[in-house]
Amino acid sequence: xxxxxxxxxxxxxxxxxxxxxxxxxxxxxxxxxxxxxxxxxxxxxxxx
Length: 48
Hints:
Elements: H1 2-28
Transmembrane segments: 6-26
Keywords: Kinase, Membrane, Transferase, Transmembrane, Transmembrane helix
GO molecular function: kinase activity
């Protein structure tokens, strides 16, 4: 049974670290807005 508790503790610590990294990326990294141009070929406008 102690090995199960050790395994669950390791999994919980790893999940906590991953959650912390995702939280930090979501709150402290700001994306830079920029222009975006998409070229659509003319045959997409033709009805079939």
